[in-house]
Design a protein that fits this description.
25% helix; eleven-stranded antiparallel β-sheet
């Protein structure tokens, strides 16, 4: 029987926010530019400099990393901890509950019908320490799934049945999840096949380049969820 799926809607919102954030994400460990400093520099070019009494020098402040700065602004917003190949590692704390996840989107997508409209598809592997959930594989296909037809995830010669709910899919037999994760760490790509409520069949191919490093970063940040 599939496990209780009460948390994924929240994770979906985090993932959507993570996608919105990623294009503008600064490199890991690089200090963010101080906007007020930029404005000051611009003003100094257009106006003559005014003499000011010499001030005592202060020790330079420690540069803020992208992780520190984003977390300080809003802990509920996903923070990019690092990009590893085709996978990103993120953390967030919605409602004060820490969540870490690895995230990727398909490298290629195909459908059995032309002009198919669907939302962004993505796969994420979440660890939620407060719920004692570790490395839960979730796939958002971007359209309502036909719950009478199991979706599948294939890595190499191994195929795993996926349980569908709304536009999300999770491994049907939770006992197989460790095997799926091991296959992902060792594999090069994952092929996800699913069917919509309108009968459209889709095939999404995900690159697994960097997934091991992303999962290791997630584990380092969120620790052992038990």
């Amino acid at each position: 029987m599939p496990r209780n799926r009460t948390a994924p809607p929240l994770i979906s919102l985090l993932v959507a926010a993570a996608y919105a954030f990623t294009p503008a994400a600064p490199a890991q460990g690089v200090a963010l530019t101080d906007v007020s400093s930029q404005a000051s520099n611009t003003k100094s070019k257009s106006e003559p400099a005014k003499r000011k009494p010499a001030a005592q020098k202060k020790p330079p402040a420690k540069p803020a990393t992208s992780t520190d700065s984003q977390a300080a602004v809003n802990p509920s917003e996903p923070t990019l901890m690092g990009q590893f190949g085709d996978w990103g590692a993120y953390t967030a704390a919605p409602g004060g509950k820490k969540v870490c996840f690895a995230l990727s989107k398909p490298k290629s997508q195909n459908a059995s019908k032309e002009d198919v409209k669907r939302d962004q598809a993505y796969m994420f592997i979440a660890t939620r320490p407060t719920e004692k959930v570790k490395e839960e594989v979730s796939i958002i296909v971007g359209y309502p799934l036909n719950t009478k037809a199991d979706a599948t995830a294939q890595v190499g010669s191994s195929t795993y049945l996926m349980f569908g709910q709304n536009d999300g899919a999770w491994i049907k037999n939770a006992a197989e999840e460790p095997q799926l994760l091991d296959s992902m760490r060792k594999g090069s790509e994952m092929v996800v096949k699913a069917k919509s409520t309108r009968g459209t069949e889709t095939t999404d191919t995900y690159s697994l380049k960097g997934v091991s490093n992303a999962l290791d970063r997630v584990a380092k940040e969120c620790g052992d969820s038990g």
